[in-house]
Amino acid sequence: MADPSRTFIPTLYYRDPIAAIRWLEQAFGFELNALVTDNQGRVGHSEMSYRGAVLSVHPEFSSPELLGPAQLKSPLSLAGASNQFVRVAVESDIDAHCERAREAGAHITAEPADQFYGERIYRALDPEGHIWVFAQPTQTLTFEEMEKATGLKFATSLDEVGS
Amino acid sequence: MSDPKRPSLTSGVCYRDPKAALTWLEAAFGFEPVMVVVNADGTIGHSEMRFGDGLIYVGREWDEDHKSPASLGGKNTQSINVRLDEGMDAHCERARAAGAVITREPVDQFYGDRTYVAVDPEGHIWSFSQTIQVMTTEEMAEAGDREIRTRL
Q: What is the pLDDT along chain A (163 residues), one digit of tens a residue?
């Protein structure tokens, strides 16, 4: 079941946001909801959706006045490093989703595989190096079942694990 | 992790010290931890926080490509916009009191939102938005002297 939560909206920074929007439509099946351009045709803001949830694609940006020393950069400008990634919940046939992405030029860094936590996932890099994780639920597991499978401790707070 | 009601899109946020981040994000922004997975050595393997109906992952620097802004000279390749239903100015004061650097004070925007921008202790940029006036796409385009469309 898709949860179209819009409380947290990821914003991804690209050197070429128009090319990124086109690629995300083609490779991952995202839909463009809104594209805001200024009077010189530059992208100011955009919103894309996937199964009801939204994200934004923006150009690189820096402004000491608005952001202080922080800068918004494509992974291309940081030798492939990212400070965040996006996890996408795929409803069905994640293997076909992966093939479509590969065909569009995604770099598949982990092929689709079943995980101990009840999901089948694959990982991919887009053309500018943003990290994407695609996940399809395969079964519902309790904390106890996952602890038994891994030997890890699953808790609902730091207090509970004595940290 | 296999809860079928997970959001269609979830951001994973990388920290040098995810334990400190969990505590700070709760104190500053009011996010609530809902899952903490601890490795045998006591470090955090994975954790999840909820705010309203939203979910984020808080994790460590897994490899050379997953880095905290603290390891990237303050640069962000992704950031998160958080929607608030109400109480933006009080939210900003709570964040400031917890040590957030407010790079943009709460201000009304032409597109009908009130927004502020905060940087957390490791340099992740968080923007907060609250709708103060519901506007049509045409009204926003007119107010901002911008073109808004739904196709390339």
A: 456 678 999 999 999 999 999 999 999 999 999 999 888 888 988 999 999 899 999 999 988 887 877 899 999 999 999 999 999 999 999 999 999 999 999 999 999 999 988 899 999 999 999 999 999 999 888 888 888 888 888 888 888 876 5
Distances (CA, A) of A87 to A55, A75, A90, A123: 12, 17, 9, 9
Interchain pair A82, B101: CB under 8 A:
no
Q: Crossing angle, helix B88-97 and helix B18-29, to 10 degrees?
A: 140
Pairing mode of beta strands B78-83, B125-131: parallel
Nearest CB among B11, B23, B36 relative to A161 is that of: B36
Q: How many CA atoms lie within 13 A of A116 on its CB side?
A: 10
Enter the pTM of the model.
0.92
- Tally DSSP H helices, then E strands, for chain A: 4, 11
Cβ separation B76–A71 shorter than 8 A: yes
Cβ contact A115:A107 at 8 Å: no
